[in-house]
From TrEMBL:
It comes from Rhodococcus tibetensis. InterPro entries: NCS2, UacT-like, Xan_ur_permease. This is Purine permease. The keyword Nuclease does not apply. It is a multi-pass membrane protein. Keywords: Cell membrane, Membrane, Transmembrane, Transmembrane helix, Transport. It is found in: Cell membrane. Belongs to the nucleobase:cation symporter-2 (NCS2) (TC 2.A.40) family. The chain crosses the membrane at residues 37-55, 61-78, 116-134, 141-158, 178-198, 205-224, 244-265, 329-352, 358-379, 386-406, 418-438.
């Protein structure tokens, strides 16, 4: 990585803005590969968690990895290059979102996988539809709302990572075995050691390196199952509607639309941050283009190449700050590489080979960082205002109930369970309503009263 930094300093300067500068092909490939390394651990964790949560067979996991890589590649190309009014034309990458995992699993487990994909499709179409309005809608989703939702997301996801470590069936003979726990401990320790001692430029790949160390330890202990390798064709294209024609349920769609609102707010923050890093401020019209790109990929991810919910990633913005290489053609090169990797099922086979405790340890750390991000957002909230305290307290309380008490909403009408059983959706809905009540409704009444007098 240090070599990359030295090479970036030697790139000749021109009158073209650094974002629009086309670099030599080897340089594009090298820096593009670095972006892939940074995002790869996050990219492969989502298919594993979802496949485990839905009880999908190994072959479906291999498909999900390929489909995920394909959509990550297409989305990254859209954001980097732009087509018509889709894509912001900044050096940004799109990846599968942790935020969508928990509500997706609630729908998939409570209904079926086709209903889950129908809801993702609707959430994507919703994103495209509201793109022109995003800058005006942001005022209704301040830090007090978004911070509450993100804390709930992290809390709801950590158990999913824990189940990958100890197993999901408490009555299984190997549930919580010491070998699983020690393997997870070795993986987590390797990740933390990398974060502590690696040079700054290499720290973004600490999770990936930790997973490699964990696989090595597992191999020494005879815990690696290499049977997935070599099965199936060498080259294959992810098939369309792999899990069947999407089905549509109003409440399921609404729950993912609520989650998609969080992703839109997250996206807006990432795009604005990237614009500041590369010294190219993003106007509202370009923000709408970025939102459309995420919407298109989510719609395709629900309706055609069935996979997950997607968002423009934050961690790769950090790479821009470290390398000072701002060319959007670098991330476009990453998109091409991701797209190419999706045609090789061996990528999914390698992921299927990694022991669950290894990926679970990495997932717990990454999901824990989501809680920290939410806390950081809430730290900006003025809690001297009792209204903000009530919003956060109520949102967290409502959101935690289904996570802490299994079957809390077991007797409510089945149509409402996808929202209520997802603590994230229920907590977000409560926070949004309370924010409107405390911070917007009184203002409107006051204006009406002023007009009357």
């Amino acid at each position: 990585m240090a070599i990359l930094n030295r090479r970036s300093a030697s790139i000749p300067k021109t009158d073209v803005h650094p974002v629009d500068r086309v670099l030599p092909l080897p340089t594009l490939g090298l820096f593009g590969l670095q972006h892939i390394l940074v995002m790869y651990a996050s990219t492969v964790t989502v298919p594993v968690v979802v496949a485990a949560g839905l009880g999908l067979p190994q072959q479906d996991l291999i498909y999900l990895v390929a489909a995920d890589l394909m959509l990550c590649g297409l989305g990254t190309l859209l954001q980097s290059l732009g087509i018509w009014n889709v894509g912001v034309k900044l050096p940004m990458v799109i990846g599968a979102s942790y935020t969508g995992i928990a509500p997706m699993l609630v729908i998939g487990q409570g209904s079926d996988i086709q209903t889950m994909y129908g809801a993702i499709l609707v959430a994507g179409l919703f994103t495209i539809a509201v793109a022109p309005l995003v800058s005006r809608l942001m005022r209704y989703f301040p830090p007090v709302v978004i911070g509450t939702a993100i804390v709930l997301i992290g809390i709801q996801l950590v158990p999913a990572g824990g189940k990958m470590i100890v197993g999901s069936k408490p009555d299984a003979p190997d549930f919580g075995s010491m070998s699983f726990l020690l393997l997870a401990l070795a993986t987590a320790s390797a990740i933390l050691i990398c974060y502590r001692f690696l040079p700054l430029a290499m720290r973004p790949v600490s999770v990936l390196l930790g997973i490699v160390v964990g696989v090595g330890v597992a191999a020494l202990g005879g815990l690696v199952d290499a049977s997935p390798l070599g099965n199936g064709p060498l080259v294959a294209v992810p098939d369309l509607m792999h899990f069947g024609v999407p089905r549509f349920d109003l409440v399921a769609c609404l729950s993912l639309v609520l989650i998609q609102i969080i992703l839109i707010v997250e996206l807006a923050g990432q795009v604005k941050a990237a614009g500041e890093v590369v010294n190219k401020p993003v106007p509202d019209t370009d923000l709408a283009k970025a939102v459309r790109a995420d919407g298109v990929i989510n719609a395709v991810g629900g309706g055609l190449v069935q996979s997950f919910m997607y968002v423009t990633f934050a961690q790769n913005v950090g790479i821009l700050s470290i390398t000072k290489v701002f060319s959007r053609f670098v991330t476009a090169a990453a998109g091409v590489l991701l797209l190419a990797l999706s045609f090789f099922p061996v990528m999914g086979q390698v992921v299927a080979m990694v022991p669950r405790p290894v990926l679970g340890a990495a997932a717990v750390i990454m999901f824990g960082t989501i809680i920290v991000v939410g806390i950081q957002i809430l730290a900006k909230v003025d809690f001297s205002q009792i209204s903000n305290l009530v919003i956060v307290a109520t949102g967290l309380g409502i959101g935690l109930l289904p996570n802490m008490i299994s079957g809390f909403y077991g007797q409510v009408p089945e149509q409402l369970r996808p929202i209520l059983s997802s603590g994230v959706a229920a907590g977000l809905f409560a926070a949004v309503l309370l924010n409107l009540l405390f911070h917007h409704v009184p203002e409107r009444r006051k204006k009406g009263a002023d007009t009357t007098h």
